[in-house]
Amino acid sequence: MTSDTVAERPTAKRVRRPHAWLWASLAGIVSAAALLAVAELLATLVARSASPVLAVGSFIVDIVPRPLKELAITLFGEADKIALLAGIGLGAAVASAVAGVLQYRFRPTGAILLGIGGALATAAILTRANAGALSFVPPVVGTVAGIVVLLLLVGRLRRWVAAATADGADANEVGMNRRGFFLMTGIVGAGAIVVGVGARILNATVASVSAARNALSLPAPRTTVTIPEGAMLDVDGLTPLITPNEDFYRVDTALTVPNVDPNTWSLTIDGMVDQQIEISFDQLVGMGLDEYGVTLTCVSNEVGGGLVGNAIWTGVPIRDVLRMAGVQSGADMVLSESVDGYTASTPLSALTDDNLDAIFAVEMNGEPLPFEHGFPVRMVVPGLYGYVSATKWVTKLTVTTFAQDEAYWTPRGYSAEAPIKMSSRVDTPKIGTPVAAGRVPIAGMAWAQPVGVKSVEVMIDSGEWQQATLSTPVNDSTWVQWMLEWDAEPGTHYITVRATDNDGNVQVQEQAPIAPNGSSGWQRTLVTVS
């Protein structure tokens, strides 16, 4: 070995600086997840209605301006609630990520922001109609847990950053702090997912009354609806006369379907009555059941839209129950209330008219009401849009006046009274689906509750009105099918349809939006013939 040989010296490991803002964002999101998980778990244990996500979602549903509600229904249909929850989740993730960054850069700003979020969720829960004495516990304890997690995670992140940026940084120390941060983040994140999802599932399972619904044995109805010969036309693409339960439209304000046990359900009648009464499910059913064919229509249904359905309902006339309480003079409205706090204003005359079968329904198309359609009891009132009559999961009627009380949708820009407007639509040929030249059936549905449809007319392009063949109506409160044979020639054509009711009134041609009391106008469909 020569004298100029130099001994090799160990080289220091290169220390990589962490992307602090990125990991601070992750810390914020995990902290928010911990908040929600703890809150959901406690909601399961002490107050099932105190879910922060659902409470905030319901609050948003309440305050969103009417045009945005209508847009959501138009864009997402029955998936509007899923879209809302997804939007809330995305917004919460962004806000919690910002809280994490703020906590890292400007202590304790992030913790304060998370606390404000928890306070808002608490307020949303406590202002719901179904809030209980312990409803504050889940969001408050969850918020405390989230803040603690945020402080711990950001504290570990700061130690990691400090070790990595120190002069002569020790790679072992940096690695230990990095592993500590990710280990805690992973454990808390995974735990939040398991606890949160498990608690939500447990909440649904505990609240489920599927067994009670399946075991429900209702007496046979005293009278049944007879479907007359000729009530159903045989045309491909035509909507069925009776809408299957799984295809029946659903529009309501409930983010989650209420689970109400018929064994504990009760109906209270109060307000301007001779005596307040409360009846159980068994007492209601014991009054005697009958079948009724009624078409329901949502006020959000556009001309030619699908937010309308027809079913055979089994139930008890509402007038019979009101008679038990004794309605006082001067009353003109009944405020119905759902178990989740939703209210609807129905003209008293629509519920007491002997010629109008407004009912408390307990069955739909021969089976107990589906949960999403109001199990165990809902209201069905012919001739009125659902938002002023068809209260699901109904639990209370208050006899009052329009001057004294208003329902959920009235201050949001909708009319207090809303009779269904006569309408007709084309089901086939469908828009955007070309048809071959030759003999083509044009067919669809028409409704004019509670008067009934007398006739339907069809106009091709700007030609003469042609009388369509009408199906035999089940009754005046149900829709009817119609059909016209058309000798279709190649090219593009417009099909226009209108109905006339049994009083001789012709469907209104003037276009009107769905607010404040339902859309109107003649549907005009463009069809391509090849």
Which strand-content bin applies to the residues? 15-25%
Strand segment tally: 18
End-to-end distance, in Å?
97 Å
Helix content: 25-40%
| Structural classification | alpha+beta
Which key terms come to mind for this protein?
530 residues, alpha+beta, Sulfite Oxidase, Chain A, domain 2, Immunoglobulin-like, 3 domains, five-stranded mixed sheet, five-stranded antiparallel sheet, 11 helices, 18 strands, globular
Task: Summarize the entry for a quick read.
With 530 residues, the chain is of the alpha+beta class. It has helices at 20-46, 52-63, 66-76, 80-105, 109-126, 137-165, 171-207, 210-215, 281-286, 318-325, 348-352, and strands at 266-271, 277-280, 290-297, 308-317, 333-338, 343-347, 359-364, 367-368, 378-380, 394-400, 423-428, 438-447, 453-460, 466-467, 469-470, 480-488, 491-501, 523-529.
Write the layout of secondary structure elements.
Elements: H1 20-46, H2 52-63, H3 66-76, H4 80-105, H5 109-126, H6 137-165, H7 171-207, H8 210-215, E1 266-271, E2 277-280, H9 281-286, E3 290-297, E4 308-317, H10 318-325, E5 333-338, E6 343-347, H11 348-352, E7 359-364, E8 367-368, E9 378-380, E10 394-400, E11 423-428, E12 438-447, E13 453-460, E14 466-467, E15 469-470, E16 480-488, E17 491-501, E18 523-529
Structure explained in plain terms:
Strand 13 and strand 14 (466-467) form a beta hairpin. It is globular and about 90 Å long. It is α+β, with helices and mostly antiparallel strands. It has eleven helices and 18 strands. It has three domains: 20-207, no CATH class; 245-412, Oxidoreductase, molybdopterin-binding domain (Sulfite Oxidase, Chain A, domain 2, Alpha-Beta Complex); 423-529, Immunoglobulin-like. The strands form four sheets. Strands 2-1-10-5-6 form a five-stranded mixed β-sheet. It has helices at residues 20-46, 52-63, 66-76, 80-105, 109-126, 137-165, 171-207, 210-215, 281-286, 318-325, 348-352, and strands at residues 266-271, 277-280, 290-297, 308-317, 333-338, 343-347, 359-364, 367-368, 378-380, 394-400, 423-428, 438-447, 453-460, 466-467, 469-470, 480-488, 491-501, 523-529.
